[in-house]
Each structure stands twice: as C-alpha cells, then as structure tokens.
Amino acid sequence: MAASTSRFPTLSRVEPAHSVIRPPDFRAAAFTTAAAGDLRAGDRTVVADVLGISAAWTTVNQVHGDRVVEVSEPGVASDADALFTTITQLPLAVFGADCALILVEAATAVGVAHAGWRGTRAGVAAALVSAMCDAGHHPQRAAIGPTIGTCCYEVGPEVLAEFGCFASTTDRNTPSIDLVAANLHQLGDLDTWAGGACTKCGGDFYSYRADRTSDRMAGVAWLP
C-alpha cells in the first residue's frame, strides 16, 4: 500500500484557496478543509462548482457504527456511517472534525465512510469494502483524509485496550491510538493514500479535540 504524508497533496488550483484536497489517482473524490466551511447544512455551491459536481449530495445520519447503505438519490439516507452508489454524478459525503473520512473507488461504484474510534473498532471501513464486493463492485483504491494524529489523540485506557497493535503515544507521552493505521489495516490490499496531516495541530482543519467545534469537514466521492 502506498501512502502520502504531504500536507497539502494535489490541491485544487481554483478558488477558494486550500479549500479542497484531491487524493491522487482518484477519478472523482475530494476532502475539504476548514477554508470551505461546514458543508453539512451550509451552502455547498462554491465547493460543488470547484469540483464540477451537483450541490445536492447524499449523506447519512452518522451514528459511529458499521452500518453500510446503498443509495440512489440525494438527501439523508438513514442512520449509518458508510454509503455507496452506482449512480453517476451523485455525490456522496461524510463529515468529521478529527475522525477518519474514507473514500473508496471501484470501476462501477464509489463509497464513503466515517470512522471515529467507535466506527473503527466496529470495522466500518472493512464493512464498506465488503458491502461493495457483495454487490459486485470490487474496490480498486481508497483514500483517508486528514485525521487526528497520534501526536494529539489522547485516549483513556478503555479505548487503548480496544486497539492492540494500533496503540501509540502522544507528543506529551500520554496514551494514543493510530486511527489511520487501524483503518489502513481494514482496507487490506487496496491501493491506499492517506493525507497525513493532523487535524488538531495541522492548523487548516476543524478539530473537535482542539476547541470542541461543532463544524465539520467533508469527504466527497462520486462516479464521473
């Protein structure tokens, strides 16, 4: 698996500056930064125009689990943390402000997943890949957007105990877990890219751990 750790890899070259990160080799996918604003209920028109997609996205009511739904129209689908589609030009989105946002691409489908520590523990990334395969759409590549890093992600012993070999320590030498590594493990042999920047100390992202913000960034994917 190949993973990039550069801070702003393959940025969109149109305004607003630094609002969109495009994972390399994906046909149609992007992560937003704080510069794009909170796109859950706000105006998506500017970012949609940057990406060349509709502003009518399909999302889910995120519940920190492993449920995956297949979708075919814009709107809020249901309680779930992953979704996929075979419909062209239908943008799918998940949102986070420290959690891992995961984009998965197959030849005939795309999927997205939201994975905090609970969703990661539940195996939501693996569940998304499995659901796409079961539906006959075999993923070729995946991308994980900026996520809180081990440098800053301080956790209690009850969380640490859930993650075994993905346990780590923060820059303050307190217990941490590596959300990116845990999700890379679930994605198996897919060609996988990871953004590498820490949402808490990177300075360009919303971070719940930094300031208890209610704003969220987006991970968006669609079939061209």
Q: Quick summary of this structure?
A:
By secondary structure, this protein is α+β, with helices and mostly antiparallel strands. It is 18% helix and 27% strand.
How does this structure look, described?
By secondary structure, the chain is an alpha+beta fold. The chain has a single domain (20-221), classed as CNF1/YfiH-like putative cysteine hydrolases (4-Layer Sandwich). 18% of the residues lie in helices and 27% in strands. The protein is built from six helices and 14 strands. The chain has helices spanning 45-51, 117-122, 124-134, 157-160, 179-186, 208-211; strands spanning 20-21, 29-32, 58-61, 68-70, 75-79, 82-85, 92-96, 100-106, 110-115, 139-144, 167-169, 175-177, 191-194, 217-221. The strands form four sheets. It has a six-stranded mixed sheet. A four-stranded antiparallel sheet has the order 1-2-14-7. A hairpin with a 5-residue loop joins strand 11 and strand 12 (175-177). The two termini are 25 Å apart. Mean pLDDT is 92; it is low at 1-15.
